[in-house]
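Here is the promised in-class demo. Please do not try to memorize the tokens; focus on the logic of going from shape to residues.
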């Protein structure tokens, strides 16, 4: 039978289940990645489950998120991660070595392999033909311990790229087009598989940009074939392991979407969602305070060469701040050697460290009510660290031309210059930053490292009240904001103080008062838990006493995170019943030992004297997990 790429990789890694969309399957995971903001929890979970050695082919522990080191907290986390990686057998990539997804793509990912990462942008490695999936820390911890990964067999959507991009457009505009078409909700359990003649015009880093931002649509992952372009990328990285991978003639897909690359024009995501895509014409002239180039979406050598083509001999508009962060230390070295960094510095740009930095809001927050144009992938309200700032997302070409003018500007007038930038496959490779494990030494736990909260004990009756009622598109940045709170990622009691802080600053205090007396319910609209894979968005509410989330719909990674820690995700049988729940309503659910396995639960709203029919947002396997109070099987404490 003719197979598509997804079918080929999954069938060669399938451990159980039927490869039919919607069915639960288990697959073997070859590689894992963690980053520091999710990694501390992940390794604490490995420890508490008694895992002493990494069991899969390769695991890399990156430090790229919390590198600001104001106070001892970040450094405590780094030391823990370094020493446990050494002991358990993970490769350790310290701060300054580069951004996890860029390094993974350049140095470790391989076509045909499976990769599970505790970061939602793990799909970036789909650009090299690896089936790369983002998950919560506990799921990654289980994969590190050698357990199969459980997932829903996806719908596979074939995105056919035809033609060739205009010189002033780029792969970022392509993925913004994909976002414009598919939106940020309703794409769970889907894989975007890219094919068509147009892919031959895209290098591996350009393909990676497209796969990276598929995460914003909420898909399981995105993937490109592995072809001659992949082969020469691996060769230029001086790496082995190339295999060709493409769909068979006549392979079937659940849906098809065609994009003519030659018709793409520059696009921009407007505040406050990556899915709020507009053509550059609609936003041209918007005055800017700041332009930031970089992140795991757009920080390759090719990206920076394109930026240099625009900035060479020009100055950034006075009063506008331009910051540039390059994907990896090796890439920085290459760009120093070929003179690019000088061009950037002469233009007035600030060269930032090679980390997530501004993207996660832990530095370079715009001024109050500031307007920022960025090349990263998320512009949720407040994520940049300034609650009332307006953040736009664009290609590096649009960002560079806008930095010169001080207003959002199409890069079209730089067409001739941009057409001369050729993808270069000669770069410096500097692996000296990676620390390979010796399987010895003590694990160092500074005072910022606190134990994981106790798992829930399943109870057949839950009684409490609605602590918070929310609308649609609640992101994990709303639930557990990053930025200035990032340093508490390994300290749940402290981090919980920030829970919903940007939505309802009284939430923490109210929850602390109620948590011994009753269970907390949160009611929400569509697409609860968009964005990041941070399991803190489940762990902090859990610590505060939340036991149930009732929403119109959930996003994939977050729903798994809730279930992993025993919080019950429920959806409404009748959408209108969302209106029957208000803040402070008293709720009761009984006989849960019988109703949870049936998938249907009756929720009694005592305050309104009405029964509401809700469904458990879980498959059979997940229902068992809920009945066990979550997935964390403690051996050590
Ligand atoms: C993000 O881009 O939102 C993050 C920060 O990388 C997260 C991970 C985290 O919250 O630590 C993600 O994408 O999963
Ligand atoms: Fe880091 Fe931003 Fe990429 Fe997340 S999206 S991994 S914060 S660069």
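The designed amino acids, position by position:
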């Amino acid at each position: 039978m003719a197979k598509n790429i997804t079918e080929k990789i999954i069938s060669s890694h399938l451990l159980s289940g039927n490869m039919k969309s919607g069915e639960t399957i288990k697959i073997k995971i070859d590689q894992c990645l963690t980053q520091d903001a999710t990694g501390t929890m992940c390794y604490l979970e490995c420890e508490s489950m008694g895992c002493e050695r990494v069991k899969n082919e390769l695991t890399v522990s990156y430090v790229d998120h919390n590198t600001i080191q104001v106070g001892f907290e970040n450094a405590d986390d780094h030391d823990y991660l370094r020493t446990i990686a050494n002991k358990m057998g993970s490769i350790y990539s310290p701060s300054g070595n580069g951004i996890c997804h860029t390094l993974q793509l350049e140095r470790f990912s391989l076509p045909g392999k499976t990769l599970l990462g505790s970061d939602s942008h793990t799909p970036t490695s789909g650009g090299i033909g690896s089936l790369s999936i983002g998950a919560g820390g506990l799921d990654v911890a289980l994969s590190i311990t050698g357990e199969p990964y459980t997932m829903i067999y996806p719908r596979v959507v074939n995105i056919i790229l035809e033609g060739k991009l205009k010189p002033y457009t780029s792969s970022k505009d392509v993925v913004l087009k994909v976002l414009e078409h598919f939106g940020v909700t309703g794409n769970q359990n889907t894989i975007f598989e890219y094919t068509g003649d147009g892919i031959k015009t895209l290098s591996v880093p350009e393909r990676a940009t497209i796969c990276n931002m598929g995460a914003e649509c909420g898909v399981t992952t995105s993937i490109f074939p592995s072809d001659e372009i992949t082969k020469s990328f691996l060769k230029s990285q001086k790496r082995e392991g190339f295999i060709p991978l493409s769909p068979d003639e006549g392979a079937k897909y659940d849906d098809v979407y065609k994009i003519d690359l030659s018709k793409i024009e520059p696009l921009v995501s407007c505040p406050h969602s990556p899915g709020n895509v507009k053509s550059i014409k609609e936003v041209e002239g918007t005055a800017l305070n700041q332009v930031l180039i970089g992140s795991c979406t757009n920080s390759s050598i090719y990206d920076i060469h394109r930026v240099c083509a625009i900035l060479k001999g020009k100055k950034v508009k006075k009063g506008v701040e331009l910051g540039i962060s390059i994907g990896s230390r090796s890439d920085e070295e290459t760009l120093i050697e070929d003179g690019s960094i000088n061009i950037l510095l002469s233009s007035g740009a600030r060269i930032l460290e090679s980390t997530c930095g501004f993207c996660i809001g832990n530095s370079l927050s715009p001024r109050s009510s500031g307007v920022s144009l960025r090349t990263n992938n998320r512009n949720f309200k407040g994520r940049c660290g300034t609650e009332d700032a307006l953040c736009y997302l664009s290609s590096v070409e649009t960002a560079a031309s806008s930095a010169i003018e001080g207003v959002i500007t199409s890069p079209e007038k730089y067409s001739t210059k941009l057409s001369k930038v050729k993808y270069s496959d000669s770069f410096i490779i500097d692996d000296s930053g990676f620390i390979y494990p010796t399987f010895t030494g003590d694990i160092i736990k500074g005072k910022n490292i606190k134990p994981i909260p106790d798992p829930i004990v399943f109870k057949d009756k839950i009684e409490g009240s609605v602590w918070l009622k929310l609308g649609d598109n609640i992101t994990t940045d709303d639930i557990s904001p990053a930025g200035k709170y990032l340093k508490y990622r390994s300290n749940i009691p402290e981090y919980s103080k920030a829970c919903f802080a940007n939505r309802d600053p009284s939430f923490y205090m109210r929850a602390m008062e109620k948590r011994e007396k009753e269970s907390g319910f949160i009611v929400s609209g569509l697409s609860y838990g968009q964005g990041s894979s941070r399991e803190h968005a489940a762990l902090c509410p859990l610590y505060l006493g939340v036991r149930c989330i009732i929403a119109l719909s959930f996003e994939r990674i977050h729903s798994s995170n809730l279930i992993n820690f025993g919080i019950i995700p429920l959806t409404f049988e009748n959408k209108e019943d969302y209106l029957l729940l208000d803040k402070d309503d008293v709720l009761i659910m009984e006989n849960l030992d019988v109703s949870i396995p049936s998938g249907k639960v009756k929720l009694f709203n005592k305050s309104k004297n009405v029964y509401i029919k809700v469904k458990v947002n879980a498959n059979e396997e997940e229902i068992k997990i809920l009945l066990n109070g979550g997935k964390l099987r403690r051996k050590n404490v």
